[in-house]
Design goal:
mainly alpha; about 10% strand
């Protein structure tokens, strides 16, 4: 990894372009709030309100954010080097038919996709606001409490899936669940320490806090890589082996046990994941 990649805070990917009224987002959980907050500052074309308001109106009052997996340019940064990522886009309802088509060019966009270029402008504002806020923050606005909570949920789901598909639990992840909960508590404590530092204007603390926040996603990588595809190293999210762009949660555990049917390999993956969760917990634990 280059020095630039070591200091990279996040990577943004404007996927699916910016050619329509329906907004969609995917991100690592630590970046959810950054996306939501930035959406409140962008006026949305065709409405009298913000993107945030339109987003909620399109989704029954919710602001759904998918989890990133594969199929886009953020993959080397996130899957290989553990750089948090967000994937933002807008499109016309249904299928406009231009995706990966020879007609997907300037003429199509100017005449059919976004003739006024209003959606492109709005999406540029969204990406710009989110980027500047992350870059200019005294303490990087990434929150790992929801990330840890989601991970504990994935692990509980993995146990339930074993009972459903195998009839019993052959890979015990109870210690991983406990460690994910410890990670959540450490994230809560770090956020409290960050809030205190911001109130006091403690510039000396800002660098220490930011180093911890930036290192946490890297802790979730495994040097050995995922089973059968060592280039992929992230243990919480990866593209599914046979699901195209769709995201697979806990890919190492899932691939070893359900795809390869190798219990020994799955247990080895559990041990690696446990050590990564311990590392993430140590990283976020505030210094006394």
């Amino acid at each position: 990894m280059s020095q630039a990649d070591e200091r990279r805070i996040t990577t943004e990917e404007p996927d699916d372009g910016a050619g329509g009224s329906r907004f969609g987002a995917a991100a690592t959980p630590a970046l959810d709030r950054s996306v939501v907050d930035a959406s409140k500052e962008v006026r949305w074309p065709g409405t009298n309100g913000t993107l945030h308001e339109a987003w909620k109106a399109q989704n029954g009052g919710e602001t759904p954010i998918d989890r990133i997996g594969g199929g886009s340019d953020f993959q080397p940064f996130f899957q290989r080097y553990g750089v948090p990522a967000m994937d933002l886009g807008s499109a016309s309802p249904g299928s406009p038919g231009n995706y990966h088509c020879s007609c997907d060019d300037f003429y199509w966009t100017a005449h059919f996709g976004d003739p006024s270029w209003e959606y492109h402008a709005a999406m540029s504002r969204l990406a710009g606001i989110a980027t500047l806020r992350l870059a200019d923050a005294d303490v990087i606005a990434m929150r790992y409490r929801p990330y840890a909570a989601e991970t504990a949920g994935y692990l509980a789901g993995f146990t339930a899936e074993q009972r459903k598909r195998l009839g019993s639990v052959v890979v015990d992840v109870s210690r991983d669940i406990a460690q994910a909960r410890a990670w959540r508590r450490a994230a809560e404590a770090l956020q409290a320490r960050a809030d205190e530092a911001l109130r006091r204007g403690d510039t000396a603390a800002f660098r220490r806090l930011n180093d911890k926040i930036m290192r946490t996603e890297r802790d979730l990588l495994t040097r050995a890589g995922l089973p059968g595809r060592p280039w992929y190293r992230h243990q919480i999210y990866a593209p599914g082996i046979d699901t195209g762009y769709a995201t697979q949660r806990l890919p190492g555990l899932h691939d070893a046990l359900f795809a390869d049917r190798d219990v020994r390999a799955a247990r080895a993956q559990e041990a690696r994941l446990f050590e990564s969760l311990r590392a993430a917990t140590r990283t976020l634990t505030p210094e006394e």
